[in-house]
Amino acid sequence: MERSGLYLPLLLRILHNLHGLLILGAIATGFWVYNTYDGRFGRLPLPPGNGAIDLHGTIAVGFFFLLPIFAFYSFHAGQQRLIQANSFRQAAQLHQTSSRYSQHQIMNTALLLAAVLAAISGRMMQERWLPNGELNQPWYLVHLIAWLVMVIAVALHLLMVARVGGAALFQAMLSVRARPDDRPAAWRKQWQAWWQQLWASKQR
Prior knowledge:
Layout (H helix, E strand, L loop, with lengths): L9 H28 L14 H24 L11 H5 L6 H27 L13 H27 L1 H9 L9 H20 L1
């Protein structure tokens, strides 16, 4: 018998958790790069990261290729978890239970957009800038801002998850359980259905 409790689609969990690991890795290695070559806003007593740029770049490559897939899934199959037309209005109604869900939708969207900004600005940077002391390059400054926004967005995202679903939602996202109709063999039909819905929406 299938265990009861909150269930999230397996593909969502795989994409979300891979994306989350890459984000955390990019944040950590990004700070290591900043701490080694910049440090204008403060430093931590970390060992010099002579290979930090290469490590950060390797994570960024995986992040850059996974992000479009996760974004496509989020804006179609997972669109109800992103910002809606009435999200800001409902989020302001703090006495309503729906306020938490709307705030969660807003933070999910903010985190996704911050990831896009980080990916684009990172791709526009050149590896030689920081070792050469070129710390005021516009795309590097944009990347710094994107890093900060990502840190704040991740923290608020986790806070919203705790408020909306608590431990049950965390457990559901980390679960490896899959229903018979939600296993990899069924994903092709799911993707076909999403494409058909997308095409139908464009024809309206």
